[in-house]
Design goal:
5-stranded antiparallel β-sheet, OB fold (Dihydrolipoamide Acetyltransferase, E2P), about 30% strand, alpha+beta
């Protein structure tokens, strides 16, 4: 079916006439019209009698000059619109920054939890008991500000001295619970537990470790796992966008909305441009640009035409080209 018959068929059944978003050809030895020598060779190939057919823009030599100019312009565009790097797309991703934050936050909690658990394992494997004496008792109050307001925290601190099995004296201090603090008196005996290989690691024996180490480690592990998952997904998405940019099909898109988002960089809200385009089968798809500043987003208005590229195998996946 030729184009005329196809157009009549589309009008009859009231369907959209298929567009041609891309035209290309295959040549074993393509002619580079930007090269003067090859352009002269191409001019020689035009038969003399053909040069007289038609006038104005229909003449072969005129059309060749226009094609030469267009080819040079397209070459300049290809040189200026190089494909962004993989890291460029990664840094524009909200999932990347969220994942990076969660991974760092989870790593801190994991480190705290590991410290608690490692110290407790030292007491379990190499712990020794010794008799000591209470040196000082003190109550310390500190005021801290939080989102819910200012609150006062009270710490009950006990200082003590003890002697190891080899007769060496060591001193230590520790924040204890209220019940332990009330049960101790200055210059009275207290039971101390220390690590034989490192007596500077010590504690009052009645102050056994709680499950805080497991809590910190569990929260840290879950948070770090979520962060790593988000980082992995943002990396895969960036790789896909680079492939679409370099190998995808170009298309014109219409700006559908210019919106402010809840995502902020340096306390400045980021914006996105939502657009709508048609693929090679005339099906409509929606896309969203990467995050951009308000100044850049305000350069676009609803109804403006922009340039995008989409994956010919998955047309609903596209990247903003401008």
């Amino acid at each position: 079916m030729n184009l005329t018959g196809c157009a009549a068929w589309c009008r009859r059944f009231r369907i959209a006439f298929p567009s041609a978003p891309f035209r290309g050809g295959i040549d074993l030895n393509p002619v580079d019209l930007t090269d003067p020598n090859e352009r002269r060779w191409f001019d020689v190939l035009i038969w003399p009698e053909h040069d007289g057919r038609g006038t104005g823009p229909t003449r072969p030599t005129v059309r060749m000059a226009a094609a030469t100019s267009m080819t040079a312009q397209e070459k300049d565009v290809r040189m200026t619109q190089t494909s962004p790097s993989w890291m460029t797309f990664v840094k524009r991703s909200f999932a990347f920054w969220t994942g990076l934050f969660l991974l760092a936050f989870g790593g801190i909690f994991l480190a705290i939890g590991w410290t608690f658990l490692h110290r407790e394992s030292q007491y379990q494997l190499d712990g020794q008991l010794a008799d000591g004496i209470v040196l000082t008792k003190a109550i310390e109050r500190a005021t801290r500000s939080s989102s819910s307001g200012r609150r006062t925290e009270t710490h009950y601190n006990v200082g003590y001295r003890f002697k190891t099995l080899d007769g060496r004296l060591y001193e230590g201090e520790q924040d204890v619970s209220v019940s332990t603090w009330d049960g101790l008196r200055e210059q009275e005996p207290v039971r101390v537990q220390y690590v034989a290989s490192s007596p500077t690691t010590n504690r009052i024996a009645s102050e056994r470790a709680t499950g805080s180490g497991y809590v910190f480690a569990g929260v840290g592990m879950i948070t770090a796992l979520v962060g790593a998952t988000l980082l992995g997904r943002s990396a895969m998405s960036a790789h896909h966008k680079v492939r679409i940019w370099s190998q995808g099909t170009s298309a014109d898109a219409i700006v559908a909305a210019v919106e402010e988002t809840n995502f902020k960089v340096n306390r400045r809200p980021m914006w996105v441009v939502r657009y709508r385009y048609r693929d090679h089968s005339a099906r409509t798809h929606d896309g969203t640009s990467d995050y951009m500043t308000a100044e850049k987003a305000n350069n676009w208005k609803i109804g403006d035409t922009i340039r995008v590229r989409f994956d010919p195998h998955k047309p609903n996946a596209s990247v903003w080209v401008e």
